[in-house]
Amino acid sequence: xxxxxxxxxxxxxxxxxxxxxxxxxxxxxxxxxxxxxxxxxxxxxxxxxxxxxxxxxxxxxxxxxxxxxxxxxxxxxxxxxxxxxxxxxxxxxxxxxxxxxxxxxxxxxxxxxxxxxxxxxxxxxxxxxxxxxxxxxxxxxxxxxxxxxxxxxxxxxxxxxxxxxxxxxxxxxxxxxxxxxxxxxxxxxxxxxxxxxxxxxxxxxxxxxxxxxxxxxxxxxxxxxxxxxxxxxxxxxxxxxxxxxxxxxxxxxxxxxxxxx
Amino acid sequence: xxxxxxxxxxxxxxxxxxxxxxxxxxxxxxxxxxxxxxxxxxxxxxxxxxxxxxxxxxxxxxxxxxxxxxxxxxxxxxxxxxxxxxxxxxxxxxxxxxxxxxxxxxxxxxxxxxxxxxxxxxxxxxxxxxxxxxxxxxxxxxxxxxxxxxxxxxxxxxxxxxxxxxxxxxxxxxxxxxxxxxxxxxxxxxxxxxxxxxxxxxxxxxxxxxxxxxxxxxxxxxxxxxxxxxxxxxxxxxxxxxxxxxxxxxxxxxxxxxxxxxxxxxxxxxxxxxxxxxxxxxxxxxxxxxxxxxxxxxxxxxxxxxxxxxxxxxxxxxxxxxxxxx
Lengths: 261, 326
Known about the structure:
heterodimer; A: Rna Polymerase Sigma Factor, Chain: A; Arc Repressor Mutant, subunit A; 0% strand; B: mainly alpha
């Protein structure tokens, strides 16, 4: 295999790689430093083993699409390595990049809300007012604390925490109920055809728009709205039979980030 | 034991619509069972949508068996390719994975260039899904009638939105009409209506940007048309592509019909838009109650001086209730 040619392709691909990395960083609410670090990681992975990633390309897809998928997979591994199972909630992803960033600053990086807002405004990431950002944050689900993978120098004072033992007990009970509801939801989903299951997961767990799902799966967009409605309607009796209300199912979907590993 | 990760190029081929039917089915089965791979796939799909990447139409001859045959990367010419057309709209129903055959690009010289430079992020502007109805609404008498009930549907206090979207979208459409009519008159009720719309948008994925516009209307210092009208217009454009256009338009129209009936406005019911929407909704077999209610509205047309306007308003209210019923 011709290494100089692979290297030339890599160099020519750098503008695309940069755009893909930037887009993914926005999607996950990365700050500038994290984004730079991830970009370096991507370049290292693409170069390693004599451009093995590019050498493996078989031409069964467009090279741009291939690189996008490869980099998305690199990101998946990067996130797990750096932050364990952290990922934005589906609710934040549906609300857009600003919400994702806000959620990440508060729950992953442990900023207080007002500090997070200051960080975002200082870096020019948003032109929304403090009130609008606070209102946006109030609509996001409350998240459990991360496991400590990469502890920064932030002070422990002022961090949100449970106030008393009763809260811990109540949280434990709520967790058991959520777990049972989650099992029921997964069992109900497994009864749907694979493509319907996939569409629902992309819509409600990954926070994708109908237009993006239609494009990704090469499906006509307009009928997809009704198809989602019918799939959800098909879930309802299965959930009710298992004792899960649609309200509980909705809360599960919006607040529980799915495993990325 | 973890299942092996799905091959990146297979996922890319799925995104490009280049798999055979059998390959596509098999891959979708795997994706549906693999949250980890699905996340990467969804991320890639979102990036492709944002950047407007499009699959190339590069073709190649099938790979020769010789190990000396250059692979697809090596055969690439390195001079810049023609700009790619951005993906601006979902593929039509005529172009489906069922029709695309799997083509083998394994060898060589046939790939002409890497279609990377330069990228366009040229999205087509989504259709303004209620433009026709807005044109009708603008001709209505500005301002809502006194004590107007803009939400004649069943409201369950404290309940969050159901996951179904058609009734929800129809409610949003109806409130959009109320907002337009109130804003056209500088009516301060527009501010409260905007808050209702922002709340309804909570259940719509990726609607954060649109909701923010309605929150801005809600927070506006005054209700003068010159203050609100630009924001109202921005809000409509922000909704395009987020919700089902047909249901948004239907909800907007039927609320406008209620207002037109309340104002004895015969010209509203003579428009081509009215005829189109009634015909379409009356024939919708997926929601027979809505269809029946719209047939009921259609019975009053053509509207003139002899029309029983109260009955027409009641029929339109029934149609809106059925559209908004969960």
